[in-house]
Design goal:
This protein is α+β, with helices and mostly antiparallel strands.
Length: about 160
């Protein structure tokens, strides 16, 4: 499957070590199957006067039939919210090689941030998230997957 990674630089050899630790699904290399989502994310670099690159890869889906541990969130629910809040606190949950689920876009991020800061209850946060359709992100936490199943195809300067 084709996946995309927005960055300020070309990323021909991704690794799990250069990611920030306090992201939605923790430290890892983040990609999406949605090109438009990656391009939209890259706009934040441009707004800051930086270069923006759309890095394109092929992710060999054979990794799914291997012994890798995958955690998937199909919707914004209590499990997703608890996981994201823990990761944003720097707490590593599970020994997952890949975590897949919705990204906290601007609207979702505001809700998560309000819950994270204690300004709204978990119930209120879940009520607000109920009608949000998850988009798509994969956090690849395993360098072995990056080395053996992800192939760089191209980078496009935006």
């Amino acid at each position: 499957m084709e996946v995309y990674h927005a960055s300020m630089v070309r990323v021909e050899r991704p690794d799990v070590y250069h990611s920030r630790k306090f992201l939605d699904f923790g430290q890892g290399f983040y990609v999406t199957t949605l090109k438009d989502q990656a391009v939209k994310y890259a706009q934040r670099f441009i707004r800051r006067g930086k270069e923006a690159w759309l890095n394109i890869y092929e992710l060999d889906e054979d990794f799914m039939s291997s012994s890798f541990i995958i955690r998937e969130f199909e919707k914004y629910d209590a499990n997703w919210l608890d996981f994201v809040v823990a990761c944003r606190k720097g707490i590593v949950i599970g020994n997952y090689d890949i975590v897949k689920g919705g990204i906290a876009n601007d609207k979702v991020f505001r809700t998560v941030d309000l819950f994270f800061s204690g300004d709204i209850t978990k119930e209120e946060a879940l009520r607000r998230l109920l009608f949000e359709l998850p988009n798509d992100q994969l956090c690849i936490r395993s360098q072995k997957i990056l080395d053996n199943y992800l192939t760089f195809k191209d980078s496009i300067r935006l």
